[in-house]
Specification:
The chain has helices spanning 61-75, 83-93, 102-121, 126-130, 150-162, 176-190, 205-217, 232-241, 257-265, 281-294, 305-312, 325-334, 361-365, and strands at residues 13-30, 35-48, 51-57, 137-142, 167-171, 194-198, 220-224, 247-250, 271-274, 299-301, 318-324, 335-336, 345-346, 358-359. By secondary structure, it is of the alpha/beta class. The chain folds into 2 domains: 13-124, 2-Layer Sandwich (Enolase-like, domain 1); 128-356, Enolase-like C-terminal domain (TIM Barrel), CATH 3.20.20. The strands form 3 sheets. It has an 8-stranded parallel barrel with strand order 4-5-6-7-8-9-10-11, surrounded by 8 helices. Strands 1-2-3 form a 3-stranded antiparallel sheet. A hairpin with a 2-residue loop joins strand 2 (35-48) and strand 3 (51-57). It is globular. Bound molecules: magnesium ion. Magnesium ion is lined by residues 198, 200, 224-225, 252.
């Protein structure tokens, strides 16, 4: 049973713990522009009011150093109830380190842990603390790596469609000469499910436009980062000229609100993506949603499905959550209570407080690197 919060009294953050885990992938993985064989998670736990909140980012160990050196001292002793105030104190403190990148990922992990802790202290699911606009959020299966054989591509994407996911996403762009054939295989594997592709910025502008036309013939409904996300003019060109029925999406490298504002000001996307483990946690994710609401644009949550299910049930513009193969696998392994898609949606467990997750310490420990 949670500690009750007494009117007029603060609930201080007592302790901040930081750990780092590196988990090998279940095979070589690659997208349009990089390859990897492991995923690192920086996990933050904050204690206060007799509870323990957890947050994380899929960041390198440098983010853990920022948490240890800088953010722990900012957060300790602050009122658990005042997450936005603590967030502002973190933003102030990181000024000379540089906010985007590693620092913002560290802030994100701490912010998520603080929201989880506040909800636990109040004995509420996080979605209820934020206030729900929906009970569940559609999830799309995401993988289809460019390193996969045709058989694995078929099995993974077809498996998700068979399991009831109504949208799946695959990677393209590493071997452009193979892309149309790979997309054709995926199309056959998933039946009537919607097909998304993600080039991770691999194509040049006119090349991307040519692929957009070929992909649309195969029913592709979503073209993510067809060109570099830094090329806002190129994204805008794609948005204006891509076939009807194909959304242009980007935003996963947004580390602060100004990034998203610029992307929307440029008219660069049909659907904005944001990642609460990068952009500044749930606090900033909520603000990104407000930017989308002001432009009547949808918001899609990038990766970390166990984290995003709660805020995505609390903001009207949210349209779906990315059920990313690597992160779903890690979150299922590390967290008791990690949600799995059912009938194509992820649903917060309203019988559990906070994010509804408990760290399975013994299972996680073998991957711990600090
Ligand atoms: Mg992407």
């Amino acid at each position: 049973m949670s500690t009750r919060v007494r009117l007029g009294s603060a609930v201080p953050v007592d302790r901040v713990h930081v750990s780092v885990y590196t988990v090998p992938t279940d095979g070589p993985e690659a997208d349009g522009t990089i390859a990897w064989d492991r995923t690192t998670m920086v996990l933050v736990e904050v204690e206060g009011g007799g509870e323990r909140g957890l947050g994380w980012s899929y960041a390198g160990p440098g983010a853990a150093e920022v948490c240890d050196d800088l953010l722990r001292g900012v957060v300790a002793g602050r009122d658990v109830m005042d997450v936005p105030g603590t967030w502002e104190a973190m933003r102030h403190a990181v000024r000379n380190r540089g906010r985007p990148g590693v620092v913002s990922m560290a802030m994100s992990a701490v912010d998520v842990a603080l929201w989880d802790l506040k909800a636990k202290v109040l004995d509420l699911p996080l979605a209820s603390l934020l206030g729900r606009v929906r009970d569940a959020i559609p999830a799309y299966g995401s993988g289809g790596f460019t390193s996969y054989s045709a058989d694995r591509l078929w099995a993974q994407l077809g498996g998700w469609a068979d399991a009831g996911l109504r949208m799946v996403k695959m990677k393209v762009g590493a071997h452009p000469e193979q892309d149309v054939e790979r997309v054709h295989i995926a199309r056959q594997a998933i039946g009537s499910a919607e097909l998304f592709v993600d080039a991770n910025g691999a194509y040049e502008r006119k090349e991307a436009l040519r692929f957009a036309e070929r992909f649309r013939e195969l029913g592709v409904a979503w073209f993510e980062e067809p060109v570099s996300s830094d090329d806002l003019e190129g994204l805008r060109m794609m948005r204006d000229r891509a076939p009807a029925g194909m959304q242009i999406a980007a935003g996963e490298y947004g580390y602060d609100l100004v990034y998203f504002h610029r992307m929307l000001e440029a008219g660069a996307v049909d659907c904005l993506q944001a990642d609460g483990t990068r952009c500044g946690g749930i606090t900033e994710f909520l603000r990104v949603a407000a930017l989308c609401a002001a432009r009547s644009l949808p918001l899609s949550a990038h990766t970390a499905p166990s984290l995003h299910v709660h805020p995505c049930c609390a903001v009207a513009p949210a349209c779906h959550v990315e059920y990313f193969h690597d992160h779903a696998r890690i979150e299922q392994h590390f967290f008791d209570g990690a949600p799995e898609p059912l009938d194509g949606v992820l649903r917060p467990d309203l019988s559990r407080a906070g994010l509804g997750l408990e760290l399975k310490r013994a299972d996680a420990e073998r991957y711990r690197v600090r």
